[in-house]
Amino acid sequence: MSSEKFSVGGILYDRPFKIRRLNHFGVSADNTGESLKFYRDLLGFYVSDSIDTAVTHPGPWLDGVPDTNVYFLRHNSDHHTFVLMPRPWIEHFEPPLRADLTVNQITWQVGSLREVVEARKWFVTLGQKVDRHGRDPGSNWHTYFPDPTGHTNELEYGIEQVGWDGLSKPNAIWPWRNDHPELPFKSEVTEIAEAHANGIDILSGHRWIDKLPKTYDVGGVFLARPFKPVRIGPASIFVADMDAALSFYTERLGLSVSEETSVSGKRVVFLRANTEHHSLVLLPLELRSILGVREGSTLLTFGVQLGSYEQLRAAKDFLQQRGVKLIDLPQELHLGIDYVVHAVAPDGHVIQLYYYMEQVGWDGQVRKPAERRRVVRGVWPDTLEPLSDTYGGETFGGPLG
Hints:
With 401 residues, the chain is of the alpha+beta class. The protein is 19% helix and 28% strand. The protein has helices at residues 32-42, 53-56, 87-93, 113-126, 188-197, 242-252, 286-291, 309-321, and strands at residues 6-8, 11-13, 21-29, 46-52, 69-74, 82-86, 103-109, 132-135, 141-146, 152-157, 216-218, 221-223, 229-239, 256-263, 266-272, 280-284, 299-306, 326-327, 340-344, 350-354. The protein has an eight-stranded mixed sheet with strand order 4-5-6-3-7-10-9-8. Strands 14-15-16-13-17-20-19-18 form an eight-stranded mixed sheet. The chain starts with 5 loop residues before the first strand and ends in a 47-residue tail after the last strand.
């Protein structure tokens, strides 16, 4: 690592940016429409926008594809926190390094537009491949680049916020760009004012309405499911070269190692971006067949945090009653999280539902194993005693629905 320091908002770091959190995540699916039913109707993500690739990029690569739409989904006010993309479209336009790469993006939020731009320039000096940079639907300025094992990462700033009316920006003011601007650049408030002055109906964007009956009491609010997603992540990925991947995520991106463990004699590393125990888990590719999980993907699990332990228990019953396959994975694969439900989506990806993640304080130390809650597989108590950091970390801004 170079001894050069960079000012990030007046604070000196080893790189010209500081990752604040995992902002959104994307997967490729053979049938995005079928997957959508799971993530939207069962898990409760909202549809912010969609793009029909048969209109934007028609061609034989879409022959026989049952649903050609890209779906932008959100659980909070961010324009998107989860993205579904048609796998044949991705494989044609952005061919992955490996046939089993179904993760199409791991997106990290930084604190400013300047950080996104300066990161891209810094990457170039290091010889880091940069796939593209600019601005996409959702308004977020971005820089895309691969890790050494082929997983696409993105640094982003400024993602569009969807307010109380549920409206996203109309397509007419989607800020498509394939470059970064000279800094400083106009604010989003200015962009909206200009669009309005030019006669664009700024209230003509997409609004998705959940038409399912809302009969479940979730914290005193009627919702269509007995739970509410309040946070996304972590992502657990299999990598072909553990040392190269670990070096990339710690030295190049600045993530911190929270903890390491061994599963079936294989090294597993937990990395964090903020105070959460982990935002990313790196697992050696050899562990995939040992665990008996899907061979066609390098994604082991993607996390979705629910609002409470009570909600997690209800989600388990809710999904089982609707025929969703639930699987067991070793506790060692989710250190810092106690109770977990692993639900298999129609596209084969495993969603890790949980309610609690250990928080790491100023000293950077995680809990000793003996100080963690003891979980007995298959035993779900009605209530739990609180830990010092129960309901700690990032707070959902609300409202619940």
